[in-house]
């Protein structure tokens, strides 16, 4: 059974930090590029960041550049998202998603696998 299990969400103050994790099982993790995608209350899906299967290349949505860092540990089948300088508008459910062909971006939602999401709330 394929599983992507996110953790690390919670409440953070503006300007604070959180680190999200996503543990994969049931498929060959290092065959897949990985992304983080979020959904704010009442809004659609928003792509956040992506990383290639080997971790050598990363990509970020413009508003996350310089604040968020995506990484992965293939030995642990784990994807990470370090989020710094958090803003109230970062409040959302954050999902990790896997794509065998590395597809990602603002218009791509056809990922092969999705996690169940973890809630991030940024508020004073």
Give a verbal description of the structure:
By secondary structure, this protein is mainly beta. It has no helices and 11 strands. It has strands at 3-7, 10-12, 18-25, 33-39, 45-51, 58-60, 68-73, 78-83, 92-99, 113-114, 118-122. Strands 2, 4, 5, 6, 9, 10 and 11 form a 7-stranded mixed sheet that branches. A hairpin with a 5-residue loop joins strand 4 and strand 5. The chain is globular, with a radius of gyration of 13 Å.
Q: Give the number of DSSP strands.
A: 11
What integer value in Å does the Rg equal?
13 Å
Q: In one word, what is the shape?
A: globular
Count of separate DSSP helical elements = 0
Would you tell me the overall average pLDDT?
A: 96
Segments where pLDDT lies below 50 for 5+ residues? none
Strand content: over 45%
Biggest pleated sheet:
7 strands, mixed
What's the N-to-C terminus distance? Answer: 39 Å
Q: Which structural category fits the helices and strands? A: mainly beta
Helicity, as a percent range? under 10%
| SSE sequence, one letter per element | EEEEEEEEEEE
In short:
The chain has 124 residues and is an all-beta fold. Helix content is 0%, strand content 48%. Strands 2, 4, 5, 6, 9, 10 and 11 form a seven-stranded mixed sheet that branches. It has a four-stranded antiparallel sheet with strand order 1-3-8-7, with no helix packed on it.
